[in-house]
Amino acid sequence: MTECSDYDRWVEMIINGKQRRQKVVETVDSASDQRTVNNVMRHAYRVLSDAEKGQMQAIKDKGLELHNLLESIGASRELSIAKTKTEETVMWAVKHITR
To answer: For residue range 8-55, what is the model confidence (pLDDT) as tens digits?
Structure first.
């Protein structure tokens, strides 16, 4: 494994006789203070309080609950839009907490 920076990690491998380089994607819990590790756009984060972390987790849990309910009742364009809007709702609510 070749280290490129503090955050980027790459694996070099040979596929069909050609050397390939692939970025290793790491995941970080969204309530963790380490959530800045895999974010390209936001340059600075503030540390969230335990209450804010709880609020963020609760919003994401409720969003997932609704998304799963929508998933269970069928498939249609309307449900696809509803799922997208649910994801957007969660995004904006989390954005409010983390600003």
So the answer is: 566 666 666 777 776 655 566 767 766 656 566 666 677 889 999 999
Round to whole Å and give the CA distance between 80 and 68.
Answer: 12
Give me the chain's average pLDDT, please: 80
The two three-digit tokens of residue 86, written as one number: 């649910």
What is the pLDDT averaged over residues 55-71? 97
User: What residue spans define the domains of the chain?
Assistant: 1-44, 46-99
Say how many CA atoms lie within 13 Å of 71 toward its Cβ: 9
Largest Cα separation within the chain, whole Å, is 53
Closest by CA position to 82, among listed 93, 95, 99, 69: 69
Residue 14 in 3-state DSSP? strand
Question: CB neighbours (10 Å) of residue 99?
Answer: 6
> In the chain, which ranges are continuous DSSP H helix?
50-72, 77-98
